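Narrative of accomplishments. A recurring question from our advisory board has been how the design workflow behaves on a single, concrete structure rather than in aggregate. To address it, we present the structure tokens for one chain from the evaluation set, followed by the sequence designed for it. No filtering or post-editing was applied between the two.
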């Protein structure tokens, strides 16, 4: 029976300390969500979105079809134009999530005879999109431009280099300026996922590329709204022809129901709200500095200046036990297990937020140091 096979596979996960379960930890202090600026829990933003729905007379619960059927509207196109202006691109095309946006780009643009080269720590959606392509694919060592150049020298056809501005597991930053220069040498095209920089970096939350004024030298950029922007959805930014190509060839866009009007209004309002509360970015930087100051003597972590911090506890069982201990102390911190990260680099992924009280951060750091890997 199929359930017998399911049970055996789940038992294998249990034995390897890899079994996932859905949990509800709303009563704990949040150090795990991607709500870096607190917008997902903002009562003011919630009311603004509700008011916008009323003002626009948007009383439709769902899009009722793909963008090519009933899911398009003048308002969606207006929001896309606003996003293109914020991200300083010719055009923006809204997707249901960053995952589907990356799948769409990597599965539809690189062709047979082309080459995709991606950072080894790139998000799963980049790797999954590359697998769906007929192009050759290689990874390069994380943020290692020497290794990337070796791969570029072997590449054929159109060359696409897929990277993230801030990496979701280590929280470290892509050496974007140097990477742009290198890819230009080999006439390669960059696909930049700005998921964890959207909102927290740059004017109007426009991300790393715009902050460094590199946007015109990057072919394709993906921005995600389900993290610091506190809502849902994503967009792809680039040339007007890129948008038209995706409308015609990207299966995750063509064959999926569009976002509902409420989600479009939420995206619109979230960026308007952030433009009037940009001090949230500085508040977040101060929380990061506080964490760093209190963890200076803790050696087992990856250097990061972003809201994503780490504490390394090698071994799936060890890191799960540490996470459980911290949760019993009132901290919502989750373990990241291998093979999601390489074996031996299992860690706690700690997300800092503007709404974390300073004392909560200090208390977490104290608890982490008492559970240092050398003391276990």
């Amino acid at each position: 029976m199929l359930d017998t096979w399911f049970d055996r596979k789940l038992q294998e996960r249990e034995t390897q300390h890899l079994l996932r379960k859905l949990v509800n930890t709303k009563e704990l202090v949040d150090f795990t969500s991607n709500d870096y600026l607190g917008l997902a829990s903002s009562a003011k933003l919630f009311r603004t979105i509700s008011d916008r729905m009323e003002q626009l007379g948007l009383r439709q619960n769902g899009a009722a079809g793909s963008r090519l059927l009933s899911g398009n509207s003048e308002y969606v196109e207006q929001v896309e134009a606003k996003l293109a202006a914020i991200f300083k691109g010719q055009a923006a095309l809204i997707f249901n999530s960053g995952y589907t946006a990356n799948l769409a780009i990597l599965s539809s643009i690189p062709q047979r005879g082309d080459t995709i080269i991606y950072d080894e720590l790139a998000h799963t959606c980049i790797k999954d999109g590359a697998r769906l392509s007929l192009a050759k694919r290689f990874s390069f060592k994380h943020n290692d431009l020497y290794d990337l150049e070796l791969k570029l020298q072997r590449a054929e056809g159109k060359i696409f280099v897929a990277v993230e501005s801030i990496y979701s597991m280590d929280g470290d930053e892509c050496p974007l300026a140097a990477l742009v220069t290198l890819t230009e040498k080999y006439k390669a095209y960059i696909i930049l996922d700005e998921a964890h920089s959207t909102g927290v970096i740059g004017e109007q939350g426009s991300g790393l590329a715009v902050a460094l004024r590199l946007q015109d030298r990057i072919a394709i950029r993906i921005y995600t709204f389900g993290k610091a922007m506190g809502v849902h959805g994503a967009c792809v930014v680039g040339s007007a022809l890129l948008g038209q190509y995706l409308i015609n060839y990207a299966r995750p866009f063509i064959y999926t129901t569009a976002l509902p009007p409420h989600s479009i209004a939420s995206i619109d309002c979230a960026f308007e709200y952030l433009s009037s509360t940009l001090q949230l970015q500085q508040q977040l930087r101060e929380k990061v500095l506080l964490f760093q100051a209190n963890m200076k003597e803790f050696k087992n972590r990856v250097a990061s200046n972003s809201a994503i911090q780490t504490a390394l506890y090698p071994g799936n069982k060890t890191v799960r036990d540490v996470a459980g201990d911290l949760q019993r102390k009132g901290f919502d911190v989750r373990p990241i297990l291998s093979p999601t990260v390489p074996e031996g680099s299992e860690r706690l992924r700690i997300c800092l937020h503007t709404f974390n009280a300073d004392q909560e951060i200090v208390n977490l750091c104290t608890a982490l140091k008492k559970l240092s890997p050398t003391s276990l």
